[in-house]
Structures are given as structure tokens and as C-alpha cells.
Amino acid sequence: MRSPGTYSAYGWQAGVGASQTRFYRIGKFVRRNRKAVIVGVLVNVAIVATLGYAAWRQQQAIREGQRALRMQTFMYRLFKLANSNYTGSLR
To answer: What separation in angstroms does the CA of 15 have from each of 4, 18, 20, 44, 86?
Structure first.
């Protein structure tokens, strides 16, 4: 069985291990910087939630504007029909 390192004429030299996988390195980073990672994740979640809420409110405002325009057109036509100058006198 080989040791994780060797001692040579130049001093202690670390042994060559298997290359670190991406998931291992990410996990190592998260373990070492747990608080900063949690804060970063929470900030990103808050940003995504805010953008989603803004998009929802924008769609709601567009629908309300379209409804107001339809109501305005209806009222305009109603009063236009009720005006005797346009439709003629009932007498």
C-alpha cells in the first residue's frame, strides 16, 4: 500500500491523488462558505420572486387597461346613440 506522500532528498512531497470532481469542489466551497452561499441563494430567490410578481402585475395592468378601453368605447357609443343630433329627433 502506498502512502499519501513520500519523503525524498528534496523533502516531503505530496502524493498524487485522483483529480477532484466538480461536485466535490462545489461541495467543498459550500461547506467552507456556508453563510455566504445561503445569503447568495436567498438574494437570488428574492430577485426571481420580485421579477415574477412584477410580470404578473404588468399583465394584470394590461388587462385592466384593455377593459377600461372597452368600457370607454361602449359608453361613447351609448351616448352617441342617445344624442338626438346624431340619431334624429323622436318627434
So the answer is: 5, 10, 14, 40, 98
Statement: the pTM of the whole predicted model exceeds 0.85 = no
Cβ count near 81 (within 10 Å): 9
* Whole-number Cα distances in Å, 73 to 60, 62, 66, 70: 20, 17, 11, 5
In tens, the pLDDT along 58-84 reads: 999 999 999 999 999 999 988 888 887
pLDDT digit string, tens, across residues 5-35:
666 666 666 666 667 889 999 999 999 999 9
Cα–Cα distance list, 49 to 14, 39, 87 (Å): 48, 15, 54
